[in-house]
Amino acid sequence: MKEIIVNQKYDGKKLNNFLLDTFPGLSPNLFYKTLRKKDIRVNGIKIAENVTLSAGDKISIYLSDEQLASHYSKLIDIVYEDNNIVILNKPAGIEVTGENSLSTILNFSPCHRLDRNTTGLVLFAKNEEALSILLEKFKHHEIEKHYRAAVIGIPAKTRATLVAYLFKDAKKSLVYISDVPKKGYEKIVTSYQVISINKKQNTSILDVTLHTGKTHQIRAHLAHIGHSVVGDGKYGNNEINKKLGYKTQQLCSYSLTFAFQTDSGILNYLKNKQIILKS
Predict the structure, then answer these.
(1) What phi and psi, each to the nearest 5 degrees, are found at residue 100?
(2) Are strands 251-258 and 119-125 parallel, antiparallel or unpaired?
(3) Is 272 contained in some domain?
(4) Do 157 and 227 fall within a single domain?
């Protein structure tokens, strides 16, 4: 049995939206089957309807870890694995950390994060020594990540390195970008190269590299220069997203290279190894 409190984000939303977002391994079929059996309670009351929730409601769902695990297994797409690390292809709709995340499913420690609806390669360490080494490598930019982003519009420059300043508003779960330094803002650097363009749709595919790794950096920085990620409901253009038929950001971490410049201990064998997600 799982218990969880409804947060403000889901105030006035339907039960199925809340539970399917909260438990990514829960399929719609299993949700409605559980509902029919009255194995879901809201504030201690058994229900058989897809009710509207209020912030603060206490939801109890009577499903075993084994039942949820059978659905979680569908989320595990292992791209590379050895005795020290595992690299997954993360689907949209699941967090890297937190409750019912990839970290809890795998029981391994993530070395970096992706946004909930960003897809692609995520690196996990299987032991403390590997985790310590990899965190240090990320800190010193000895692991290179490339993203593929579909964006609205066609950039004037085919390649560019963008420099700006980012402020994170944790309460609103938003970041703000400034072209000039401001108090509380941190410097960000983002590079892109145009891979292809679609003049008919007025969209482009970019190869994006982060030189600094801040929250929502790619999405916010590209939106700031007028080329928001297709499907991004937070920083993008919802009217255009709807016309193009996308509800989540079209952003994928597709390449990871272990560009080690210094000794890497038990992970020296990974030096110059590149993992590329097949499209």
Answers:
(1) 55, 40
(2) parallel
(3) no
(4) yes
Q: For residue 277, is it within any domain?
A: no
Do 162 and 228 share a domain, yes or no?
yes
Same domain for 62 and 75, yes or no, is no
- pLDDT, tens digit, 9 for 90 and up, residues 126-164: 999 999 999 999 999 999 999 999 999 999 999 999 999
pLDDT in tens, 159-207: 999 999 999 999 999 999 999 999 999 999 999 999 999 999 999 999 9
Which of 32, 52, 70 is the endpoint of a domain? 70
**CA 121 → CA 11, 218, 240, distances in Å?**
33, 16, 27
**Count: domains in the chain:** 3
Longest Cα separation, the chain: 59
User: pTM of this prediction?
Assistant: 0.75
Domain coverage including residue 173:
146-253
CATH number (domain holding residue 93):
3.30.2350.10
Is there a contact between 205 and 173 (Cβ–Cβ < 8 Å)?
no
Let me know if residue 169 belongs to a domain. yes
Bridge partners for 276 per DSSP: 255
Per residue, the 3-state secondary structure of the chain, as one string, reads CEEEECCHHHCCCEHHHHHHHHCCCCCHHHHHHHHHCCCEEECCEEECCCCECCCCCEEEECCCHHHHHHHHHHHCCEEEECCCEEEEEECCCCCCCCCCCHHHHHCCEECCCCCCCCEEEEEEECCHHHHHHHHHHHHCCCEEEEEEEEEECCCCCCEEEEEEEEEEECCCCEEEEECCCCCCCEEEEEEEEEEEEECCCCEEEEEEEECCCCCCHHHHHHHHCCCCECCCCCCCCHHHHHHHCCCCCCEEEEEEEECCCCCCHHHHHHCCCEEECCC
Residue 37 lies in a domain: yes
Q: Do 78 and 136 reside in the same domain of the chain?
A: yes
